[in-house]
Amino acid sequence: MCGIVGYVGFREAYPILIKGLHRLEYRGYDSAGVATINEDGKLSVFKAKGKVQQLEEFVNDKDVSGTIGIAHTRWATHGEPSNINAHPHCSETESLALIHNGIIENYAVLKVELQKQGFTFQSSTDTEVLVQLIEYIKQLNKCDLFTAVQLALNQVVGAYAIAVIEKNNPDRIIAARKSSPLVVGVGAGEFFLASDASPIVEYTQKVIYLDDEEIVIINRDEEPKIVTLLNVEKTPEIKELEMNLSQLERGGYPHFMLKEIFEQPETLKNCMSGRINVEGTNVTLSGIIDHKDKFRFERI
Question: What residues have CB less than 8 Å from 279, skipping those under 6 apart?
Fold first, then answer.
């Protein structure tokens, strides 16, 4: 199911990214990776097959400093689980790093065209094809990263949630989604990015949920800007999270599955709250009542 985490702000990014990856472990994965840009403008990418803990052990003596970064847990689709196939993936000049959930269906065609232009590939993934395509478009059109991402995604067929950082612009994350969830956390002088709210809720209750075919430009000292693939600018809608950190933790249970099993009575109670009359004799499901003509069951 893969997991995405991103951060830009005034804190060190790495601890936030790693904690976020741990919060996304429930999604299932086979490898993990992280990319940061330090104060000297160096883009560092570290990846490891296995659990997030193995990634932590691998980077224990590495330089992961910086106040901007992205991180990822991968579930293999294209290419076996390995250090090379793990995300983030870099462009050929190593100026861009990208993480990606989803599947790029036309990656093979794009890869052939990029190889004709002299690009080489290290991994077996569709994700590396996407980051190389973004770099190629950026070079060809002499445009900024946002424009290159927008043009590249207009050539892509498939599902994606992506986040990209650029070595020469350590104050910006470009992210986009189509058929794969992505949420932006809005803090005080800092921004968070994740596949769901679990890595974010500890730091802020304010979030922006991206819709399909939307790109968000997250700059360190500016409000997030949302533009569609068709270049229509949209006003970000900030919402308040209705969950808290305790709801996201395992609550003393050894596994999330066990926690969810024991939570079923409370979950059902919350689900039916407001749908059962005071006497407890009648259930009202207004969504069904409003559309009852559409429910024509011939066989169950």
Answer: none
Q: What is the pLDDT of residue 44?
A: 98
Q: Which two tokens stand for residue 30?
A: 């086979």
Whole-number percent of the chain with pLDDT over 90: 73
Right CATH for 3-245 from 3.30.470.10, 3.40.50.300, 3.30.1360.30, 3.60.20.10: 3.60.20.10
Integer Cα distance of 250 and 53 in angstroms: 17
Q: Where are the domains of the chain?
A: 3-245, 252-294
Q: Which residues pair with 227 in a beta bridge?
A: 215, 233
pTM: 0.84
Tell me the per-residue pLDDT of 202-248, one tens digit each, with 9 for 90 and over.
Answer: 999 999 999 999 999 999 989 999 999 999 999 999 999 877 766 66
d(CA 134, CA 152): 6
Predicted local confidence at residue 224, as pLDDT: 97
Q: Tens digits of per-residue pLDDT, 102-114? A: 999 999 999 999 9
SS (H, E, C) the chain: CCEEEEEECCCCHHHHHHHHHHHCHHHCCCEEEEEEECCCCCEEEEEEECCHHHHHHHCCCCCCCCCEEEEEEECCCCCCCCCCCCCCEECCCCCEEEEEEEEECCHHHHHHHHHHCCCCCCCCCHHHHHHHHHHHHHHHHCCCHHHHHHHHHCCCCEEEEEEEEECCEEEEEEEEEECCCCEEEECCCCEEEECCCCCCCCCCCEEEECCCCEEEEEECCCCCEEEECCCCEECCCCEECCCCHHHHCCCCCCCHHHHHHHCHHHHHHHHHCCCECCCCCCECCHHHHHCHHHCCCCCC
Does residue 59 contact residue 86 with C-beta atoms inside 8 Å?
Answer: no
